[in-house]
Amino acid sequence: MTEADVSKDFSAVLEKLKSGAEILVEQDHRPVAVIRPVKGPGRLLSESIALAEAHGSTVTLDDAFGQDLEDIIEGHREPLDGSRWD
Questions:
Q1: How far is 10 from 6, CA to CA, in rounded Å?
Q2: Given this model, what pLDDT does residue 21 score?
Q3: The whole model's pTM is what?
């Protein structure tokens, strides 16, 4: 799909993702992104917070949290194994 197609009809993109399709987004006939459906059921933020609290986390979601998270992500570009977190 072109960038214009995606922005014009995002609900169509979501329907394709729900059926398991991957969307290749192109700009000027060049691929710029791939949108993939989520694997597995995922986890709500509230569930993640409850899990962190259950493990004794004292992290505070303050005004700098977003920047802290970006710094963490940038510092760990390799794929993480989330199966070890539960």
A1: 5
A2: 93
A3: 0.47
